[in-house]
Design goal:
Blueprint (H helix, E strand, L loop, with lengths): L8 E3 L7 H6 L4 E4 L15 H12 L3 E5 L4 H11 L3 E2 L8 H10 L6 E5 L2 H11 L2 E5 L8 H21 L2
Parallel strand pairs: 1-6, 2-3, 2-5, 3-4, 5-6
Bound molecules: magnesium ion (MG).
Length: 167
């Protein structure tokens, strides 16, 4: 039952992702979490490395969409700069915003990946819809207090459990 929380892939940074492998798997769309995945939470722009990486993704033909639990002004501003469509106030892991994002990239769930830094929002939500889920080590931005207080502690416990079970 805990498999619903388990990412299909675990990477330490975005540029590490093997895009050819994703293409081979038949993936065509990629949903991207915003804060601490492609931009440090609390900062106003993506690093040049991440911008290059996003261009590379698009160059490979992937359709992108940002899916963020953050508020509209921040998400719209950043998405506008990156020229990537976005869903904000997403309430991940609830499904509604995932369906909205799938509508924007126009790919089926099994052709779509989600990349995010949180198990209980990005990975759980993605797994519920049958997306290809990719967990990335968070960028070093300051975190929402609820994330710190609840999600990160629970993630640690879950990861310790997986290690024990040698998942
Ligand atoms: Mg995040």
């Amino acid at each position: 039952m805990l498999e619903i929380f388990y990412p299909r892939l675990f990477i330490s940074s975005l540029p590490e992702l093997d895009l050819k492998h994703l293409l081979k798997l038949g993936l065509k769309g990629i949903l991207l979490d915003l804060d601490n995945t492609i931009i440090m939470r609390g900062t106003e722009s993506c690093s040049p490395e991440i911008i290059d990486w996003l261009n590379e993704l698009q160059g490979c033909g992937f359709k992108l969409c940002i899916i963020s639990n953050n508020k509209s002004a921040r998400v719209k501003m950043l998405a506008g700069e990156l020229k990537v469509p976005a869903v904000y106030y997403a309430f991940k892991p609830f499904k509604r915003a995932f369906y909205q994002a799938l509508g924007l990239v126009k790919t089926a769930p099994e052709e779509t990946a989600i990349i995010g830094d949180q198990i209980f929002t990005d990975i759980l939500g993605g797994n519920r819809l049958g997306l290809f889920t990719i967990l990335v080590v968070p960028l070093n931005g300051k975190e929402h207090w609820l994330t710190r207080l609840i999600n990160r502690r629970a993630e640690k416990a879950l990861m310790a459990y997986w290690r024990k079970k040698q998942f």
